[in-house]
Specification:
By secondary structure, the protein is α/β, with parallel strands linked by helices. The chain has a single domain (8-234), classed as Rossmann fold. The chain is 47% helix and 15% strand. The chain has a 7-stranded parallel beta sheet, sandwiched between helices. Strand 4 (83-86), helix 4 (101-129) and strand 5 (132-137) form a beta-alpha-beta unit. Helix 4 (101-129) packs parallel to helix 6 (150-170).
């Protein structure tokens, strides 16, 4: 297991399925964990179940001013951010004909603007210290597209454009920036889909199953480690072979 001995990791949206697994894996590797939340009751119940003590910070990552306050709180409590995992995101699916400007903007704001809003608070500190990791959680659908998801696919594809550009700016400062693009993962949201629909999804995955949140978390932990210091600007697909390129 990678050693992250007392590094501070901020995982946005860390109380959800993939985010929770990422928090657990980074904590097991020795990192101190902070996560953002919007629903206090849900976040506190989640924190009580963890085998470590996460720092919970209320923040709408789509709001720049709230992200400024996020930085202030995190630095006061933990001293700074070494590992940033931009994991928060939403979907508002609709065909292009039926999508509304509101649904478009909600997803772009939560899934793409948030990557700028949060990264902008912490990357300068990483470059000043000469070490840092930014890991952006995108999606298979940002790579291949998906019917009824023009907003989500645009946001997730945009995340990797951000990754490639920022990676070039900070590479000589000891900071890496990478994208992870999960395929269909057995989260609560996916498992809530009707069984026959899930079976159709699995039929398209060469390994013959859904991914596990822990598999995405393991990849994130590797990217966060010193062992991954020569990987930057990459988009690592973890989709069971469903989309290869």
């Amino acid at each position: 297991m990678p050693e992250l001995n007392n590094k501070v990791a901020l995982v946005t949206g860390g109380t959800g399925g993939i985010g929770s697994a990422i928090c657990q894996r980074l904590a097991a590797a020795g990192a101190r964990i902070a996560t953002t939340y919007r629903n206090a009751e849900k976040a506190e119940a989640w924190a009580a179940e963890q085998p470590y003590e996460p720092l919970l910070i209320a923040c709408d990552v789509g709001n720049y001013e709230e992200c400024v306050r996020l930085k202030e709180t995190l630095e006061a409590q933990l001293g700074g951010c070494d590992i940033l995992v931009n994991n928060a995101g939403i979907t508002r699916d609709a065909t292009f004909k039926k999508i509304t400007p509101e649904k478009w903007q909600q997803v772009i704001n939560a899934d793409l603007d948030s990557v700028f809003n949060v990264s902008h608070q912490f990357v300068a500190g990483m470059t000043d210290r000469g070490w840092g990791r930014v890991i952006n959680i995108a999606s298979i659908n940002g790579q291949k597209g998906c019917f009824g998801q023009t907003n989500y696919c645009a946001a997730k594809a945009g995340m990797h454009g951000f990754t490639m550009a920022l990676a070039q700016e900070v590479a000589r400062k000891g900071v890496t920036v990478n994208t992870v693009s999960p395929g269909y993962i057995a989260t609560e949201m996916v498992m809530a889909v009707r069984e026959e629909v899930r079976e159709q999804i699995v039929a398209q995955i060469p390994v013959g199953r859904l991914g596990r949140p822990e598999e995405i978390a393991g990849l994130v932990a590797f990217l966060a480690s010193d062992d991954a210091g020569f990987i930057t600007g990459a988009n690592l697909a973890a989709n069971g072979g469903q989309h290869m390129h």
